[in-house]
Each structure stands twice: as structure tokens, then as C-alpha cells.
Amino acid sequence: MPRLNSDFLVKCIETLEKSYKLLGQSAKDSIDYEMYRNSLVKSFELTLEQSGKLLRKKLTPYLASKKQADALVFKDIFRQAGLRGLLDAAAVERWCRYRDNRNDTAHDYGEEFAEETLALIEDFLRDARVLQTVIDNA
pTM value? Predict the structure, then answer.
């Protein structure tokens, strides 16, 4: 299988890391805090989506066909990665939790949601970096 291009995923992770760092340096009642928190939420969403897309491609050789891989929904992509030894069971559960959080953004972009996302970021960043390594390795 040819090496997958993870450049956009890397950029998403780096943007998320930078937003998180700058958010931590901002006063909670400042416009900078709002700006960096908004950037963090959007970067979280992009990183999550890109992770699923690349992992689906990584899984394709393990499945009967590309069509079977394309039919997987997000959580099933990560469950299949667990079954194939690409991720451990705890990581699969965290990725499913990240997805549940992301699904909430479709309904609630308020402060409470943003703070819930913020609480996940440190684990998410670690998991995203591990996943990037999984994707980059043959």
C-alpha cells in the first residue's frame, strides 16, 4: 500500500496545539480567549474528520474491498482499527467519545459545548499524534 499523505492532518494537529497554547495564555473574559476557543473547536472538528478519512484508507487493505471500507461509519472505522491491532481498546473508546462530542456541535455551539470540548483536548492531542504515527507507518 502506498504511503498515505498525512500533511493536512499534521497541519490540523499543529493548529489545534497552537490554539490550545494561546487559549491557555488568554484571560477567560477576553476576546482573545473567545477567538482561540473558537479556533480550538474548529481545529478539533477538522482533526477528527481528517483522522477518520485517513484511517479508513489505512484500513482498506484489511477489508474485503474498498467498497466495504467506504461503507464504514466513523465509529466503525475506529472499531475496525482496534480489531486489526492498529489502536488499543481504550483508544477506540476515546475516539468514539470524541465523535460523540463532535456530533453535539451540530446542535450546540454554545459556551458549555466549547468547554466540554476543551476538557477533551489534551487526550485528543495525544491520540491524534498516535494515530498520525499509525497512518504514517506501513
Answer: 0.90
d(CA 98, CA 113): 12
Closest C-alpha to 75, from 103, 99, 106: 99
* Percent composition of the chain: helix, strand, coil (DSSP 3-state, to 5): 80, 0, 20
The residue extents of the domains of the chain are 7-136
8-state DSSP, 2: P
CATH tag, 7-136: 1.20.120.330
For the beta carbon of residue 96, count every other beta carbon within 10 angstroms.
15
pLDDT tens readout for residues 35-64: 999 899 899 999 999 999 999 999 999 999
| Cβ(59)–Cβ(72) below 8 Å | yes
Cell of 63: 477489508
